[in-house]
Amino acid sequence: MARVKVTVTLKPALLDSQGKVVQSALTQLGYEGVDGVRIGKYVELTVPDSENIDAQVKEMCEKLLSNPVIEDYQFEVIR
Amino acid sequence: MKFGVIKFPGSNCDQDAYYTIKDVLGQPVEYLWHQDTDLKGADCIVVPGGFSYGDYLRCGAIARFSPIMSAVQDFAANGGYVLGVCNGFQVLCESHLLPGALVRNDNQHFICKQVYLRAENTDTPFTNQIDNGATLQIPIAHGEGKYVCDEPTLKALQENRRILFRYARPDGSLSDQANPNGSVDNIAGVANETFNVFGLMPHPERAADPALGSADGRLIFDSLLRHTR
Asked: Which GO terms describe its molecular function (chain A) (predicted)?
């Protein structure tokens, strides 16, 4: 079995309103100069290990885990 | 005209839709269970509002893969009428029956209030009973209702008059203030290329009975009935 860590984030062109609110909260707490706060999703999976694991996870990401219209994804396979 | 209202786990506007169709419009209607694939001979499928599958992962993302939605996709491809409201709009976008996606409202709030919609194309199965340029008063209730799409998609929607409603002031003029969620181009509802699939964030089924403060939403259902008569 292999562990897969998937991160899904809103595309850079889209306003991340959650990130914006968190950014202003950080500024209020006195952390000056904090910029570019983006909030995403983190998904962990355990999948059967195989040679085409990358292609398989890519398919999962594009089919369900992310919406390519609004989101980007990255993943890391840990064997 | 027979209607089918889908029930997903988490649907909560299914009964509103059922009530409007049965009691206000006097049309036959049946519930359709998300795990079934039988559309029970319906001429129009309503994908209602709510929080299908808890809106886990993304609004509408899980519902898209329920058995009933593959039947709805075939039905739509064959010209069947599909109306998606609120979460139903999100489900239709996730299903690629409509373009674009719905994301978190700009102001981060769940917004529940009456808004005004300007009818942008009154020559469609869903809008033919609406006067040209008329504004309808219909409520919204959503946290993730900001419509977004890429530039080429927006251009195609504009050029083919597939934007059926925009958020507007009561007098019909457009402004950023009248846009409750930050939707691109004030978009409240869009249709597919063949105008048999229509999704919108506001709830026409909650504004179809004068007892509820507005009956403007009824015009959308009346249009469909007129079109198929």
From this structure: ATP binding; phosphoribosylformylglycinamidine synthase activity
By C-alpha distance, the chain B residue nearest A13 is B150
Task: Tell me which chain B residues have a C-beta less than 8 angstroms from the C-beta of A17.
Answer: 104-108, 182
Topology (CATH level 3) of domain A2-78: Mth169; Chain: A , (3.30.1280)
Q: Model ipTM? A: 0.88
Which pLDDT score is estimated for B229? 84
Strands (E), chain B: 3-7, 29-33, 44-47, 81-85, 101-103, 111-119, 135-142, 146-148, 163-168, 187-191, 197-200
pLDDT in tens, B113-157: 999 999 999 999 999 999 998 999 999 999 999 999 999 999 999
At the topology level, CATH places domain B3-228 in Rossmann fold (3.40.50)
B203 is catalytic: yes
Q: Is B151 a catalytic residue?
A: no
Question: pLDDT tens digits, residue range B36-47?
Answer: 999 999 999 999
Residues of B in contact with A41 (CB under 8 A): 57
Please report, for chain B, the start and end positions of each structural domain, with discontinuous segments joined by +.
3-228
A37 forms beta bridges with none
For A17, the closest of B62, B99, B108 (CB atoms) is B108
